[in-house]
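Contributing new records

If you add data, match the layout below exactly. Sequence lines come first and carry their own label; structure lines follow with theirs. Keep one chain per record. Anything else will be rejected by the validation script.
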Amino acid sequence: MTDSELDAIRAKRLVELQQQQQQQQQAGSNKNIQSSPEEKQQQQEDMRNTMLSSLLTQEARARLNMIALTKPEKGRMIEDILIQNARRGAFGGRKVKTINGKTNMID
């Protein structure tokens, strides 16, 4: 497989994950049974982690986790930026290999 084929597969998978997330949100809002706030929070965190796992290489994910351990608010801010950029298609289906540029932007 060439890089362009892999990028196309990654982009397709990211779109599928986003569609699943939207469907789950719609299904959750259509239910008459109210979920507890803790369950909703856990579901959001699970979806967030799934999206970040699909966006980041293992090395970048490890780096982000180290940042989040030392500075939780900064780690969360970086995660938010990455997710927003992915939703806008800024990565073009590619995985993020490094997050050093993102941390420098925030400092």
